[in-house]
Inverse folding.
């Protein structure tokens, strides 16, 4: 445990030292960090104010990081923050960045939740690592898997469609892909018509040259032939991804699981509907059902022994490994006697709207029949409520007991003085100990984008970027160790 905490502290310390050094170079470039998803990574270059909850791993990380920075500042010969103009600032200056260190125990439901946005769905149901996604062969090609292991696609920051749509609900993405495909076909028809009018139907080098030279003048759909080819490649990429996602959504009925989990987290569902879904042999796989039940168990304040017995019997019949539940049951029992509060997810659950009207009207290649289209209500996850409360210095019960560390202060500040100062923080780095997920990242992006007043800059990081499968595996290992 100590070695893990020290490794996290070393990583965070290195980040702030690096930021301090880079702040002196106006032309420096910010590089991606492992397990850190960038929202807006400014050159902060100053020593942070640290906030963390009590009685968990996040508090240990905060304490040791505070000590590590203090020890470095006391050593004038080896001070890695020297020559930084920010060191002349007042020790209570709230223009310094806020480092919020959180523990995964504050919200175990979100990493288990079936997502409905593009990037989170790709991470949940496909093999998505280091901005590269691999689409495995479909079930009908399973016999050839040893020879063909699937196709890989790079999803880089230069992909305009990915940047624009990665936070959108899947139905919106499917419609956007279809729209891009229609626009491309129209551009392609313009090119063919142009070639015919110019008498360049034969494919020769002269044809390509003349076509590239005249397209920019006579068409508005594209500027050059290479651009059209690149556009086609990008459309094919996202068509393949959307098709792969749609196949898995329909095969596992992931839209139904998403809808049920949203209602459970908003406390608007009933045991009868949950029993019906868990009993359906065609709905999802054992892991999907276990994720659904764990969310129900975490988000329901009081679950009787009779209810637990009923649900566990259904899960065992479906072939579920009950080890994750053993750990969550033990965790929930512990949390009742600790300061950990019941997380508030807000929202009212998704609302089904007209089903894929654009796709239906355009005769899309995406057969969406049987898949629900949801108008998802925007609501803040527990991590976002905490970040908002700390950045805006609001009086929220969730953050009342959070510890305050200032590595530049000679002594701990008076709580009364801190309570009077309500100046907000424009910059924050949010770090999750125990693993993070794209749903939390996207929720913070949405919060940042809709914030009014002073522009916020938020960076989300974590010890490990988890999808539900890997998080469930960790719960399984913990359950087997303690049961």
């Amino acid at each position: 445990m100590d070695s893990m905490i020290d490794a996290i502290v070393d990583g965070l310390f290195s980040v702030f030292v690096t930021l301090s050094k880079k702040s002196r170079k106006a032309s420096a470039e910010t590089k991606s960090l492992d397990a850190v998803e960038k929202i807006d990574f400014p050159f902060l270059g100053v020593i942070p104010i640290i906030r963390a909850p009590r009685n968990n791993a996040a508090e240990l990380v905060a304490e040791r990081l505070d000590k590590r920075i203090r020890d470095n500042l006391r050593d004038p010969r080896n001070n890695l923050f020297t020559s930084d103009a920010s060191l002349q600032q007042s020790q209570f200056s709230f223009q310094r960045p806020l480092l919020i260190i959180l523990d995964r125990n504050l919200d175990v439901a979100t990493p288990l939740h079936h997502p409905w946005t593009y990037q989170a769905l790709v991470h949940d149901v496909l093999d998505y690592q280091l901005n590269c996604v691999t689409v495995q062969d479909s079930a009908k090609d399973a016999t050839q898997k040893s020879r063909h292991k699937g196709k890989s696609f790079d999803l880089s920051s230069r992909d305009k469609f990915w940047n624009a749509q990665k936070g959108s609900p899947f139905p919106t993405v499917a419609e956007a892909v279809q729209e891009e495909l229609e626009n491309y076909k129209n551009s392609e028809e313009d090119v063919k018509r142009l070639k015919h009018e110019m008498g360049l139907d034969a494919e020769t080098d002269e044809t390509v040259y003349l076509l590239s030279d005249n397209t920019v003048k006579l068409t508005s759909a594209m500027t050059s032939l290479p651009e059209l080819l690149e556009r086609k490649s990008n459309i094919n990429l996202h068509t393949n991804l959307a098709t792969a996602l749609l196949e898995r959504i329909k095969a596992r009925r992931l839209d139904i699981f998403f809808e049920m989990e949203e209602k459970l987290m908003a406390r608007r569902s009933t045991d009868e509907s949950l029993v019906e879904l868990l009993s359906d042999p065609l709905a999802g796989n054992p892991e999907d059902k276990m994720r659904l039940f764990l969310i129900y168990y975490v988000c329901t304040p009081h679950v009787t022994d009779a209810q637990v017995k009923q649900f566990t019997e259904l899960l065992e019949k479906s072939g579920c490994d009950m080890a994750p539940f053993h750990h969550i049951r033990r965790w929930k029992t512990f949390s009742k006697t600790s300061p950990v509060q019941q997380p508030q997810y807000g929202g009212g659950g998704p609302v089904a709207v007209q089903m894929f009207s654009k796709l239906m009207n355009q005769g899309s290649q995406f057969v969406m029949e049987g898949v629900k289209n949801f108008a998802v209500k925007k609501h803040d996850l527990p991590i976002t409520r905490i970040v908002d409360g700390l950045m805006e210095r609001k009086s929220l019960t969730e953050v009342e007991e959070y510890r305050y560390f200032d590595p530049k202060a000679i002594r701990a500040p008076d709580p009364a003085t801190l309570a009077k100062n309500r100046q907000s923080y424009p910059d924050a780095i949010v770090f999750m100990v125990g693993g993070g997920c794209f749903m939390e990242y996207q929720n913070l992006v949405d919060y940042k984008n809709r914030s009014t007043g002073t522009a916020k800059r938020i960076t989300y990081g974590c010890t490990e970027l988890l999808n539900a499968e890997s998080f469930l595996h960790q719960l399984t290992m913990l359950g087997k160790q303690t049961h």
Notes: The chain has 17 helices and eleven strands. Residues 121 and 177 are 16 Å apart (CA to CA). The first strand starts at residue 36 and ends at 37.
